Amino acid sequence: MAIAGGIALAGCVAVGVIDPNKTHLFPACAFKATTGLDCPGCGMTRGLHALLNGDVVRAMNHNILLVIILATSAVWLSWNAIARRMGKRQLHFSFKRNTWIAIGLAVFAFWIVRNLPWAPFNWLGSGA
């Protein structure tokens, strides 16, 4: 677990320091290169760079799903850290099958909707 955390931290430092908008160091999305359409993950690297540099609005413009995932994770981690210190019960993610199906359908819907070319959906694109 510590090794994975160290690798994640190193990756975040690299993305925070190196602007993916100005370099080709980070891999491009194969789906977008092939189809010209955004996948659910398109814009996440640029969004993470924006977040790590304090620009939440720009991060949301690149990929709002990233911001939702990171905000949810931050709340969960904070809750568990506080609960652990207070000796309280921690929150665990043990979703039932239907919950995973709903999450998958929500991500799939995001994938479709972010590629619609008219308002109010066109702002969901990655901006690349």
TrEMBL record:
The protein's name: Unannotated protein
The keyword Transmembrane helix is assigned to this record: yes
Pfam families the record matches: DUF2752
Organism of provenance: freshwater metagenome
Record keywords, A-Z: Membrane, Transmembrane, Transmembrane helix
Membrane-crossing residue ranges in chain numbering: 64-83, 95-113
